Amino acid sequence: MTLLLCTTAGAATAQTRDGSGDSYWGAIPPPADSVSAVFASGPRPVWETVLLVPYWIIGLPLRLVAVGVGEGVELLDGSGVASTVAGWLGPRTGPFGVIISARAGGLSGVGGGVAVEHTELFNRPGTAFRGRVAGTFIGDFRASGAVRVPFAERSLLDLGTGYRFRNRVRYFGIGPERGEEDESLFRQRTWWVGGEVTGSWGDQITTSASLVFTSVKPLDAPEADQDGDDPPITVRYADSLPPGFGETSNGLALGAEIMHQDVTDTGRPVGGGIRRAMVGYFRGTGGETTQFWNVRGELQQFVPLWYRHHVLALRLLASWMQQIGDAPIPFTRLITNDDPDLLRGFDDFRWRDRGLAVLSAEYRWPLWASERAEGAGLDLYLLTDVGQVFSDFDDIRGRNLTFSYGAGLRLLTAAGFALRIEYARSNEDAVFRLRGDQIFQTFRSALYHGRDPNPAR
Predict the structure, then answer these.
(1) Residue 355 maps to a domain
(2) Res. 296 pLDDT band, cuts 50 70 90
(3) What is the secondary structure of 91-157 as a DSSP string?
(4) Do both 281 and 332 map to the same domain?
């Protein structure tokens, strides 16, 4: 008989080939019916096989992708690349930080940006500054800056300003029934300045009030875009230009919001959700007589499924503008499918109207994690979006609904969500996106983070 000698925590153990003998935890008896069990698999019923075969066929491509990506990540992890990148993307240890962002796909094209933040201005914890500059190779550009000052108890004052130029904005007309053949291009210039007061009531309820001045001007596009097949808006709609084209829309927007949130993890949330209600009032200035109310409701819920960290993320939103008086709402202020209210599978600005309703769902599961399940890693997810724009609630019907589906990867760091890469299809298009933000859990102060406040989201 051959003895295997092992050392564990300084204690000697001896084991035989059948696994019996002394161990660090005590004596291990030899195999016997009283101390061992054999697990046997019974025959699978025919009905179960019939149900599983379609599942195997449909899931095979996803399993192959998961295995391929997983092996690639394991290779990077073994070489030290993954841990190095995770260190770069991890949370900062001081008050000053620099955040590098990248984007690709959609109308904006390939580009990136940089944001700087200091959270202890004048050596006062919580008094912060954030500046951001970003651009793309097709000419999109944005810049913003904001300061944050804490006051009273659990209250914040944000003061911010920003500028954004979009070189490629699409217009198909207004309403849910506009076809692909109605596409045209224009450019858009926006700037804003304002303030927002936010207060926390306990750990889960937040209220805010804001006053923001915005200026929006649509500009004609060049005679032909990069592909040479989409005409400028002044060519396609020469006889019926939309309300407000060629004019600068200036105005003040007053908003109020209440939000209940019992989920804080932006990486792999496994439960809880967000409930949000917002109401706003816009009034034109400088001779503009436009006035309207806008209301918005949003529900998000993260439902744990049958395996740990397998989650169904659900998002339902509805947004509506109510015109006041006879002056029409400029088309540049209407609601459209733009970040974060995407209809993935369609490019930005495919639809435009006074209302928007969207149901989004993502089935997420971990693909790889570094060191621990809640740490840095990659998640794979399947996605679907169903929704439409509308001018009144009678327009919400089956034939007007859009449907898109796809899959994506989420990069997570020790600080939470960092990056998403997704591919989505619809009956019209296939869209690839690489973004440093997500359509879920986007409720950070718009002014402080430099988010375009037109339209109010």
Answers:
(1) yes
(2) very high
(3) PPSSSEEEEEEEEEETTT-SEEEEEEEES-GGG-TT-EEEEEEEEETTS-EEEEEEEEEEETTTEEE
(4) yes
Integer angstrom CA distances of residue 293 from 19, 79, 254, 286, 320: 75, 56, 10, 19, 8
Q: Is the pLDDT of residue 158 over 50?
A: yes
Q: Are residues 247 and 119 in the same domain?
A: yes
- Cβ pair 161, 191 in contact under 8 A: yes
Q: How many domains does the chain have?
A: 3
> Of 302, 316, 220, 307, whose CA–CA distance to 265 is shortest?
302
Would residue 338 count as lying in a domain? yes
The CA angle 303-306-312, to the nearest 5 degrees, is 30
Kindly report the number of other CB atoms within 10 A of residue 41's CB atom.
5
CA–CA separation, 271 vs 309, rounded Å? Answer: 10
pTM: 0.79
Q: What is the pLDDT of residues 211-267, one digit of tens each?
A: 999 999 999 987 654 555 679 999 999 999 999 998 999 999 999 999 999 987 878
